[in-house]
Specification:
heterodimer; A: elongated; B: elongated; transmembrane helix (chain A); GOLD_dom_sf (chain A); signal (chain A); transmembrane (chain A)
Chain lengths: 215, 235
């Protein structure tokens, strides 16, 4: 019976642990004006974590960011940054929080991308983590290719974000050119007609006055 | 070997106890591992939106878990079953592709059919203001996109792959994701080029048009005023 319980427990254990993904998150969120958004994550002691962030759209494409450790100390603080990368080795175990603030802006809401990675990537199967033997050549080649592909995907992400930023600016420019041209044409017509009317009114005698003059 | 013999020797009663201990341990491990997702706080009527810019035919899996602040115990407890989250996913053309209500803990999945910015919005369905008691709802969120959404243990079990085969399968999935992203990149770059060319055209035509309008208005003004002054016998 003990054996039965043991044999049924392990696959379940494996399955449950496999269901967990690598710690960390990559999110793009909207930050309204005068708002602050904080995220929290539990980090073990001695584990290295990294935070990459970039502003994609909005205003002057800048945001304030600060990171606090579980004791409340600010371990990173930057104001009005467009993008930055920050890594830190956690000295204290606990919940670390990082916040993005758009409180300096009165009317532009921003879209911010961040990538928060904690520790190393876990193996795709949990029992791969505690191997006794060394990796075979095939397996180590696979690991090398995997790491290289991860670099490719990372650079694709960064390229996509920069392109999104440029595209946002270009579309902004396009619509600004359109609205400015239309309003300038209207202003041109209005100003020229009113100039003519005003000038004519200087030389037009007012009827009651002229009658008074004549009589 | 000695440990195994020890289990056999002790007997079925202790074995059942050991099974219970193992089960309790793995439940503890499960919850301990689960609680380490990124979390943020959300107000009662607040809607939080996340954007995922993804190529087409990409699967996105989102897991969330909510906790409510318990004032008596002064800590966050798992939310009551009545409290749920409403999840809404919009595709790049602002068409809703998923709008469902889930419980206090949920998992949503969707696959993109058009490349572009998909918007995932979450807000709580709570209408009872007293439920929140002025506090915030803590939401643990985890969104996995594309290759990261694959459950390799499940794939290994279903297709009966060895470790090496599984690694190669992961590489294949990664390369496919890279290809999709590159196709999407080409599409985006074309759109960007169209926008830039449209701006260029607009600036060119509008400046020519405005110069013509300026000249025409000037000519009209002079002629009109000249006829006006002639009528007034000032010229």
């Amino acid at each position: 019976m003990g054996r039965g319980a043991r044999s049924s427990a392990f696959p379940v254990l494996l399955l449950l642990l496999c269901a967990d993904r690598s710690l960390g998150a990559e999110l793009t969120f909207e930050l309204p004006d005068n708002a602050k958004q904080c995220f929290h994550e539990e980090v073990e002691q001695g584990v290295k974590f990294s935070l990459d962030y970039q502003v994609i759209t909005g205003g002057h494409y800048d945001v304030d960011c600060y990171v606090e450790d579980p004791l409340g100390n600010t371990i990173y603080r930057e104001t009005k940054k467009q993008y930055d990368s920050f890594t830190h080795r956690a000295e204290v175990k606990g919940v670390y929080q990082f916040c993005f603030s758009n409180e300096f802006s009165t009317f532009s809401h921003k879209t911010v991308y961040f990538d928060f990675q904690v520790g190393d990537e876990p193996p795709i199967l949990p029992d791969m983590g505690n191997r006794v033997t060394a990796l075979t050549q095939m397996e180590s080649a696979c690991v090398t290719i995997h790491e290289a592909l991860k670099t490719v995907i990372d650079s694709q992400t960064h390229y996509r974000l920069r392109e999104a930023q440029d595209r946002a600016r270009a579309e902004d420019l396009n619509s600004r050119v359109f609205y400015w041209s239309v309003s300038e044409t209207i202003a041109l017509f209005v100003v020229s007609f009113s100039q003519v009317l005003l000038l004519k009114s200087f030389f037009t005698e007012k009827r009651p006055m002229s009658r008074g003059v004549h009589s | 070997m000695a440990a195994e013999q020890g289990v056999r020797v002790v007997g079925p009663g202790a074995g059942a106890g050991l099974g219970k201990v193992v089960r309790a341990l793995l439940l503890l491990l499960y919850f301990a591992a689960r609680s380490s997702a990124l979390y943020f706080h959300i107000g009662e009527t607040e809607k939080k939106c996340f954007i995922e810019e993804i190529p087409d035919e990409t699967m996105v899996i989102g897991n969330y878990r909510t906790q409510l602040y318990d004032k008596q115990r002064e800590e966050y407890q798992p939310a009551t079953p009545g409290l749920g989250m409403f999840v809404e996913v919009k595709d790049p053309e602002d068409k809703v592709i998923l709008a469902r209500q889930y419980g206090s803990e949920g998992r949503f999945t969707f696959t993109s059919h058009t490349p572009g910015e998909h918007q995932i919005c979450l807000h709580s369905n709570s209408t009872k203001f007293s439920l929140f008691a002025g506090g915030m709802l803590r939401v643990h969120l985890d969104i996995q996109v594309g290759e990261h959404a694959n459950d390799y243990a499940e794939i290994a079990a279903k297709d009966k792959l060895s470790e090496l085969q599984l690694r190669v399968r992961q590489l294949v999935e990664q390369v496919e994701q890279i290809q999709k992203e590159q196709n999407y990149q080409r599409w985006r770059e074309e759109r960007f080029r169209q926008t830039s060319e449209s701006t260029n055209q607009r600036v060119l035509w509008w400046s020519i048009l405005q110069t013509l309008i300026l000249v025409a208005i000037g000519v009209w003004q002079m002629r009109h005023l000249k006829s006006f002054f002639e009528a007034k016998k000032l010229v």
